[in-house]
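User: Predict the complex with adenosine-5'-diphosphate.
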Amino acid sequence: MEKRLIVQKFGGTSVGSVERIQRVAERVIKTKQQGQQVVVVVSAMSGETNRLQSLASEVDSLPNARELDVLLSAGEQVTVALLAMTLHKLGYKATSLTGWQAGIITDDRHNQATIKSIDHDKFKTLLNDDQIVIVAGFQGMNQNGDVTTLGRGGSDTTAVTLAGLLGADECQIFTDVDGVYSCDPRVVDSAIKLDSIDFSDMQAMAKHGAKVLHLPCVEFADRYNLDVRVLSSFSPLQGTLVTRLPSRASVCGLALQREVYRIDLAPLKADAIVAQCQLLGVTLHWHSGSVVAVDSNDVSKLLQMLQQDIIDVAPVSTLTVVGAELDELYQKVQMQLLENDIKVLDSFRCDRVVKLLLLPEHLDRAANFIHAQYIELSHYVAKDKKELIL
Ligand code: ADP
Ligand code: ASP
Ligand code: MG
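Assistant: Here is the predicted structure with adenosine-5'-diphosphate placed in the model:
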């Protein structure tokens, strides 16, 4: 009988020290001992990619994109080697692979690349030799042999894409929380852990700031109908299954985005500027009339390119409600927040999303208020109803 193949990904905090890498190794060994083949994807040790990014910024506020990829990909190379050494020490066969050694071919978009293919034979040979294969997340190589990276948080995408392309039986994303919550549990203490979440709701959450999963990995999982389990590296709980659900919660969750800048543009130029942002690969978190909101990382790009068209730049935050039946919320929420001294600077509604633009200092309070009013209440009412029926 063919052995089951499991892809396991461990994020930065999970591999943040040699002791933690030891615990990751033990977890991987447990899976191996169950008679399964294992491919492990790891991130850089926590803080390392930020450290490399700030070294680059010290040299140039807009570093060359190709060289930035060479630099940022170094973090993951350290972790794969340390994990392989740890597994050797514990008596297991393991081989570390950088993205290019794994034949991860991407398109040309430096800093935002997409995986096109992998070297199947390489994986097959190593797995048949009973090796644990450890792959550096977040990186690949374009057709010219240049190193590329997949965007911040991209190791999730390496793992899910590998799981899809290798036909894995399971893809597990281990992180520092024990699943996907109705809001970032570091902001809302009473956030509710979701047993499962639909692909499209998870996409909306990730797109609007829930960084527990990298957006492209959820898009990939949805396209190939590949279930993904999000689990804690530090606890044995079940986690959250990201899957296709037959019915979806009314208000599913809140996604928060900090470090966003609101830019007021010269009105006549607004449309042209929006088109230019797209060409520059700048993600617009907001676009309404002559106002756009972009990541802090993209602000210097825009300031250099569009200097004379920018009227004002100010830090803001966004709060996005994801779910169905949002009419009442959209009608009432601005007034309710105002009663709590929270001013909504701008708002936007489409399909299963309501998005609010807020002052950064109001974000956490607004999230706790909306969570209590619209998520906790309906969650407990639904739970009570279910218990009554049972
Ligand atoms: P990793 O390094 O393992 O990839 P990340 O820091 O990228 O981990 O993602 C995990 C973090 O995502 C959590 O620590 C949590 O603060 C944050 N987060 C944001 N929104 C959510 C959410 N809805 N559910 C769970 N975690 C969330
Ligand atoms: N190390 C990269 C980052 O910090 C990729 C990842 O962690 O997924 O963004
Ligand atoms: Mg991450």
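The mean pLDDT is 93.
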